[in-house]
Amino acid sequence: MDQFTLSARLSKIAEELPKLSNTINAMKITNTGVYGKNYEELSMDAAQRAEKVACSLRNLIFAANLVERQTLMERVAKVQGITIEHTSDMVCITLPGLMPKRTKRVNTTFLTDPLYASLNTYVKTNDIPRFRDCVVCFSHIFDQALSARRIRDYDNLECKQIIDTVAGFVLTDDSGLFCDAYHTTEFGERDCTILTIMEKSLFPMWLKRQEEQGKMISDF
Questions:
Q1: At what angle do helices 36-64 and 69-80 cross, to 10 degrees?
Q2: What's the pLDDT score for residue 128?
Q3: Whole domain around residue 36: which residue ranges?
Q4: What is the pLDDT of residues 130-188, one digit of tens each?
Q5: Per the CB 3.0–4.6 Å rule, which of 94, 116, 169, 177 could disulfide with 83?
Q6: Residue 107 contacts residue 51 (beta carbons within 8 Å)
Q7: pTM to 2 decimals?
Q8: What are the C-alpha distances in Å from 154 to residues 161, 208, 212, 213?
Q9: What is the domain count for the chain?
Q10: CATH number, position 96
């Protein structure tokens, strides 16, 4: 990439930063109890701008060919708190809280690219199961210190993008013929999403354990 193109792209990224700062300042002075909808719109705008900046900077790194894509995405995954664990019949993936559906691919890659890199690395050193007849469980955890207004309908979250990314590593097929989907919502210490994939025979036991731990909302 020539210096002129690099400078132009950096300038475009820099233009987003004051907008992001202004939105965050507006969030600070917005009464969430009275203007909950306004706060929601501001927070979404801030999150999407931040993701856009992050993805744009990643693309510049790729274009400069200074760091391998896999290496960078593994570092991003660590920052995002993506972790993977497995047993012989269950895989558990911890992710950041999912965002509402969006149409621009650049936004969804904020999470799916580092998730793919994490899985790609993990399967090289771990013999994880590949499921044919399974249940895919999304546990949406929301920071209990923040407003419950932030809880969204399951249909409005970017779950499909996550399943599409994970499917190639742990599922025979992600159609309804081979897997069922379950969603639950709870309050915890921080926002995150825990994706658990298991054999169908294990699901009743898993669900009972979740209910005993005090899950707030469930939808099957």
A1: 150
A2: 93
A3: 1-66
A4: 998 899 999 999 888 877 777 776 666 778 889 999 999 998 876 765 788 899 888 88
A5: 94
A6: yes
A7: 0.81
A8: 13, 21, 22, 21
A9: 2
A10: 3.30.1330.70
